[in-house]
Fold this protein.
Amino acid sequence: MPQPRDVLTPDSLSMLQVIADTGSFAAAARTLGLVPSALTYRVRQMEEALDVLLFDRRSRQAQPTEAGQALLQEADRLLQDMDAVAHRVKRVATGWEPQLTIVVDGVIHRATLLDLVEAFYALHPPTRLKLVEGILSGTLETLTSGRADLAIGVSVQSSDTASLQTRDLGDMIFRFAVAPHHPLANATEPIDDETLLAHRLIVVADSGVRDAASVGLLGGQDTLTVGSMPAKIEAQIRGLGCGFLPDSMVAPYVAAGLLRVKDVARPTRNMRLRYAWTPSAHTRPGRSLQWWLEQLESPTTRNALLDHSRHPHLPGGGSDAV
C-alpha cells in the first residue's frame, strides 16, 4: 500500500487541482495529456494512501469531497511554498545568506534598528533576518558562540575577540537617574557612594552565561534585577530603585518629568560600544552581512543607533518609532 509521502508529490497535487478546475476526470486527462484510466489510477493511489475519498464520482462532475477540498487548499499552499523555496535557493546561489542573525545590545536604539531592517527588506532579499537581544557580555557571547553573525553594541572585551573583526560604534555616557518621589531626588550633590549604598539599584541581568558582568554595582548594595532596559526604566520611574541610564535614553523621561538626573561623586561612566562579526578565512561576507556592514560604516547611522532622544518611547504614552 502506498504511503502518503509517496503519493503527495508536486505533480500529483497539481493533477488534483486540474481535476477540480475542469470538473471531470475525462476533461482533466485531456488537459494533462493522459489516458483517463491512468489519471483514475493515480487518484485511487492517493485515496488509498490517505484512506479518504477525494472526489465524489456519483455524477458526471468530479466534485471534491470535504477531505478533497482540505487537501486542495493545502496543496495550493504547499506548491506556493515550493516555488518560494526554489526562488530563495536561486537567490542564495548569488551570494545571499539563507539567514542572518544579529544580536543587538539592549542599549541600542530600537527605532533606528528597525529603520535599517525596513531598508534591508526594501531590497527584497531572500535572507531571513533574526534579531536577538543581548545585555553586556551576553551580546558578545552570542556572537563568539556562533549563534549570531553580527553583534551591535558590544561593550565588553573577551579573549575570543582575536578571531573577530570589530569597529567602533561610538561612546555612550551613563547618567544616574531617580524618580521625582525617590528619596535621592532631593539629595545633596554630588551623591557619594556611601549614600548610594543605602538605596536599591535597578540592574539589567547580563544575558551572558560564561562571563556575566555587573556594571555600577557597589559591594553589598541591594538590587532589583530586571530583564531589559525598558523594564529598568519603568522600575526607576516607579521609584522601585535608582540606577544609571544612557544619557540620550534618559533625556526624554527627564523632559517629561518622570525622572531626575543627579550628579554622583564617582567618575562619569563612558562606555565605548563596538560592532563585531566573525570573518571567514576563505570567502567574503555574504551579501546580507555586507549590506549591514556598509550601513554601519556611516557615522550618521552609528550615531542614530546610540541616540534615544530620537523617537522616544514613554511608558503609558505613544511612540514615533517605526
About this structure: The longest strand covers residues 165-178. Residues 66-92 form the longest helix (27 residues). The radius of gyration is 29 Å.
